[in-house]
Amino acid sequence: MPRYLTSVFALPTLRTLQLHIRYQINELSWPNQCRVQYLTIHSCTLDEYCTILRHSPLLQVIIIKHCHFIMEDFQENDFSTLASVSFQQVTSLTLQNIINIKIDKLECLLSLTTSLVHLQLTSQVLIFDNSRWEHFIIRTLPLLEKFEFFFSQTFWLAYSPIYIESLIVPFRTRFWLNEKRWFINCDYIKRMCLIKIYSIPVCVSDFEYVIESDKISISTTVTTDNNATITDNVHTLKLDIVKLTTTAAMVEETVC
């Protein structure tokens, strides 16, 4: 099977490839001059990722569905090795389900593709550190036009509205609001001690709507119909009808 797939990858007419297999890329002997332009892959290691970039000169779009292997494979000596390498052909990169990652490793990985116009990141940890994203984008990704992200993390502590407000302060600068016009939401789900920070509209297809009384929600946008804007890309919306109707009934009773 791997030998057959290797011959498929080498087809001169191949432009789009969705790869959902358990074989390692190196086992498949990725062709030296793969003609693929649009690649979706379930997961890969750091070495495999570099192999794909090195041997795919026409590759423009990469989507990696699960990024745990590529991050776990990161070693300290990789920083110096990758610092001098850049693959300019890639203009769109999507990294989904990022776990166990430090921001310096993620920055090193993104530095491999400095010509990005579009970047999307989803993670089960909050990947940001004050103004670090702003500085990194200015320095390393100067062509970036669209930055989508969805970071969420559950904590064991309850947080105050003041703390939640502090999380979104780095996204209120001129860079985010005026130059890029990238707007951000921060939700704190009280009953779960869950913090979600995400770009608007939300870039995940499944989204849970939480009623206002159960959360603290702060945004960098002043759009009046913010909920409609947030869910532009959502295909599956989860909401608790019982809580929603109960809250509506309580509001109506109070008004009357």
Structure in words:
- The chain is of the alpha/beta class and 256 residues long.
- The chain has one domain (2-255).
- The chain is 32% helix and 23% strand.
- The protein is built from 11 helices and 11 strands.
- Strands 1-2-3-4-5-6-8-7-10 form a 9-stranded mixed beta sheet, covered by helices on one side.
- Strand 1, helix 2 (25-28) and strand 2 form a beta-alpha-beta unit.
- The longest helix is centred in the C-terminal third of the chain and has 15 residues, at 241-255.
- It is globular and about 55 Å long.
- Mean pLDDT is 83; it is low at 247-256.
Please tell me how large the radius of gyration is: 21 Å
Order of helices and strands: HEHEHEHHEHEHEHHEEEEHEH
The level of helicity is 25-40%
Work out the number of β strands. Answer: 11
Mean pLDDT: 83
Number of helices: 11
Class per helix and strand makeup: alpha/beta
What is the count of distinct domains?
1
Largest sheet: 9 strands, mixed
> Which segments are poorly predicted (pLDDT under 50) over 5 or more consecutive residues?
247-256
Outline type: globular
Strand content: 15-25%
Question: What spatial order of strands do you see in the largest sheet?
Answer: 1-2-3-4-5-6-8-7-10
In whole angstroms, the N-to-C terminal distance is 70 Å
